[in-house]
């Protein structure tokens, strides 16, 4: 089963993690205790590829927003902005990694950015915007001082300073709607038998319309989307961990009762069939794809 280090998130989602770790170094850090109500973790990416070499990194999205400081090759569509906020991405997140680069990221808890801002993140779904459009100028200014020459501890301290400006004056107790969202997400992660929205409604006792409103405001996506992504994370994690059993059995384990439907869903998100993905992973391992790195 996938690694679950937190009640509200997993480390699943990176496609072909062994190959990713050959090209990109990923590290994660816990947030400061006073920010942990809203922040899941800090993460850092670093890469240095030979001239002319490009690595197409691919990640299955989570129901979380991210704040990033990006140094190196700029992402398409963001211009010269370096401090960015990205809402939940509903499709696979693809980035062509080239040259040298460095990214410091803050991954919010599901609903955490909405709770911190006091407003819906629905307009951010499938969008990346300049952080200055959402966060205080002091926060963006401090984050703008982050660069690749800093050690991880220094970078985390600076990012924490910036986030504290954003959190100043925010209520840390009594946000009942956000507390409810966190409790719901914890339940979805803890009980993988929940694969349908109606099951959530019946077993957790939350009215369907309220469930949908909470997720739309705090996450920017539907409960159905969250359930679908979590179980696809589980499937891909099992394949990456070397699952060699029947794909039909794997589909049933995670709530698909029609293997054809499972195959279509997998291909639509991952970009290839479950069988082809497993074969590619096996080929990578056979040719020495597993190297020291930090994809976990």
Automatic annotation (TrEMBL):
**Locate the HTH araC/xylS-type domain: which residues?**
179-280
Q: Which Gene3D superfamilies match?
A: Homeodomain-like
| Keyword check for Nuclease | no
Alphabetized SUPFAM superfamilies for the sequence: Homeodomain-like
Q: Kindly indicate whether the keyword Phosphoprotein belongs to this entry.
A: no
Q: Which domain of life is it from?
A: Bacteria
Q: Which UniProt keywords apply?
A: DNA-binding, Transcription, Transcription regulation
Matching entries from InterPro entries are given as: AraC_XylS_family_regulators, DUF6597, Homeodomain-like_sf, HTH_AraC
Name under which the protein is recorded: Helix-turn-helix domain-containing protein
């Amino acid at each position: 089963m996938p690694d679950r280090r937190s009640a509200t998130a997993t480390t699943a989602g990176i496609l072909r993690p062994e190959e990713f770790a050959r090209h990109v170094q990923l590290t994660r850090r816990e947030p400061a205790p006073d920010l942990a109500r809203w922040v899941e973790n800090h993460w850092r990416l670093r890469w240095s590829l030979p001239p002319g070499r490009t690595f197409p990194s691919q990640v299955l999205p989570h129901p979380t927003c991210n704040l990033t400081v990006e140094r190196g090759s700029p992402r398409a569509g963001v211009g010269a902005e370096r401090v960015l906020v990205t809402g939940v991405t509903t499709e696979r997140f693809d980035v062509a990694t080239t040259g040298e680069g460095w990214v410091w990221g803050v991954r919010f808890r599901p609903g955490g950015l909405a709770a911190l801002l006091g407003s819906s993140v629905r307009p951010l779904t499938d969008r990346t915007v300049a952080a200055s459009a959402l966060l205080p100028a002091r926060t963006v200014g401090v984050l703008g001082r982050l660069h690749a020459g800093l050690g991880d501890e220094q970078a985390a301290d600076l990012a924490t300073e910036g986030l504290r400006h954003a959190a100043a004056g925010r209520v840390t107790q009594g946000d009942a709607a956000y507390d409810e969202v966190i409790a719901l997400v914890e339940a979805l992660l803890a009980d993988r038998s929940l694969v349908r929205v109606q099951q959530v409604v019946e077993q957790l006792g939350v009215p369907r319309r309220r469930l949908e409103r909470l997720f739309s405001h705090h996450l920017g996506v539907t409960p159905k989307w969250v359930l679908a992504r979590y179980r696809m994370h589980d499937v891909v994690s099992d394949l990456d961990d070397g699952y060699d059993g029947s794909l039909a059995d794997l589909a049933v384990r995670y709530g698909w009762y029609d293997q054809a439907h499972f195959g279509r869903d997998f291909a639509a998100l991952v970009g290839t069939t479950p069988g082809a993905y497993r074969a590619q992973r096996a080929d990578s391992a056979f040719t020495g794809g597993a190297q020291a790195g930090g994809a976990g």
